[in-house]
Specification:
Layout lengths: L7 H16 L1 H8 L8 H34 L1 H10 L8
Helix pairs in contact: 1-2, 1-3
Amino acid sequence: MDTKEPTGDYIKGFNKGYILREHKPNLAKSLRLTKFPESEKDYQSGFYAGIDQKEKELTKIKTKALSLDQVRAQYKDQFKTLDKTSNKEMDRD
């Protein structure tokens, strides 16, 4: 398998796309629709990859948060019960 090292332009584009998506998501999405000059293909590829990477990370964080909220909702009554009995001593055998 031949793996190609990313060019400097690709890395610059990736970093800018990633940071832009993090801080200015609407601008990043509109620039995603922009066509770059042919001479900046590596930069364009990196820029799009940076936006996509940050999007994946944000989606993963949202999914984890939703999952945690679902677990909390499912066991809400048990958590309340634990809170009420937390002042009582428990047998640990």
